[in-house]
Amino acid sequence: PMVDLGSLVLLMSVFGGKIAFAYVIVGLVIAVIGGTIIERLHMEDQVADFIRQAPNVEVASPSLTIADRMDYAKNQVVTVKKVAPYIVVGVIIGAAIHNLIPEHIVRSILGKQTWYAVPLATAVGVPMYADIFGTIPVAESLLAKGAGLGTILSFMMGVTTLSLPSMVMLSKAIKKKLLGTFIGIVCIGIIIV
What we know:
Layout: H1 5-15, H2 17-40, H3 49-52, H4 66-76, H5 80-100, H6 103-110, H7 117-125, H8 132-144, H9 149-162, H10 164-170, H11 176-192
């Protein structure tokens, strides 16, 4: 959920190519290193039983006409209706940060000089639920108020990867030990980045 084409395009338009590229590369590095660590810990038994015992399913590939393919593609495209609520909430929070919180407060809490800014931003992001589109307006407002770029990226990664609702859904598919390992690896990876 942290790295996708939509996030790359949006980040490029707001923060520029270098930052968008860094965000994508960092997200992929965290995923590969985290997956490698989990694989080496041999935690296969931590996947929920109903998933491990599911039979293999053969899916027939239907032959589709060009019109069928166009209809399917049209239905798969992210619509304004799906994304709009996240953007509206993000814009409201971003506007509140921009208009209500003085710049010196943001700088003192989330500025480059504070050692706790990145862990705090990651922790604050975890209970929130939003996709990358909802975090961009908040990130833009924080950047304008003087928050460090690393802090902002940590917040965005925490929101999109470790949100509480996502962890609740993930807990249905994997057991607590693996879930805790996943959360720990991702948190440490985000903070290091």
